[in-house]
């Protein structure tokens, strides 16, 4: 894929290095001379320009990109880059970094954002996921909020221990996709049995998250 990254700070450079290592073509767009350092990711194409200016993006060839990542430290800039990428250049996939969690509600399809990544929210979810038993923890929002990846951990005394996955009576809009058990990742089959301490990952709509909790006896 050809990927454009707006913002060549520590985050942008790290993303670029990973993508280059995976064989993708990467273009880094950076306005600030202090962050413009082609030697830091030599395999990437570097463009010194303002990613909020339509003409600069056109000259850089954003119309040829499959994915655009708005990774600056300024939420306003990330929103403008996302909107331009989607509306002016019809980029298929736009991913935006959310710096301030209070701005997360803005990062939607209306602003051209396909996926919003909020580091503070992800870190908080990881903490909750590691210490919470019996509560639904939202790990990630998918497709502009149409679905979520959620986790619930069974306690050691769960009445579902020893029961098959097929016996679970889950709401219609919830799908059990993975069971984490110790160091194992289990793709659940109908005959697989549950154990206390299992971490269950579901893809579900927000409306039925609490129904999952109820179905598991919490």
TrEMBL record:
Sample GO molecular function, one term: potassium ion transmembrane transporter activity
GO cellular component annotations of the record: plasma membrane
Name of this chain's protein: Trk system potassium uptake protein TrkA
Keyword 4Fe-4S annotated: no
Organism: Lentzea flaviverrucosa
Domain of life: Bacteria
Start and end residues of each RCK C-terminal domain: 137-218
Location of the RCK N-terminal domain: 1-117
């Amino acid at each position: 894929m050809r990927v454009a990254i707006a913002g060549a700070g520590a985050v942008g450079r790290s993303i670029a290095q990973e993508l280059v290592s995976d064989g993708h073509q990467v273009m880094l767009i950076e306005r600030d001379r202090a962050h413009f350092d082609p030697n830091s990711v030599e395999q990437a194409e570097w463009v010194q320009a303002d990613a909020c200016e339509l003409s600069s993006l056109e000259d850089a060839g954003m119309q040829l990109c499959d994915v655009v990542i708005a990774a600056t430290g300024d939420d306003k800039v990330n929103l403008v880059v996302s909107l331009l990428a989607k509306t002016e250049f019809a980029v298929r996939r736009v991913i935006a970094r959310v710096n301030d969690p209070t701005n997360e509600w803005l990062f939607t399809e209306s602003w051209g954002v396909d996926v919003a990544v909020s580091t503070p929210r992800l870190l908080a979810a990881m903490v909750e996921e590691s210490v919470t038993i019996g509560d639904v923890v939202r790990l990630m929002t998918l497709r502009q909020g149409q679905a979520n990846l959620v986790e619930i951990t069974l306690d050691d005394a769960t009445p579902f221990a020893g029961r098959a996955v097929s016996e679970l009576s889950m709401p219609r809009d919830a799908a059990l996709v993975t069971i984490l058990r110790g160091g194992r990742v289990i793709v659940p089959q109908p005959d697989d049995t549950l154990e206390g301490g299992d971490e269950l990952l579901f893809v579900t709509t927000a409306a039925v998250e609490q129904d999952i909790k109820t179905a598991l006896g919490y």
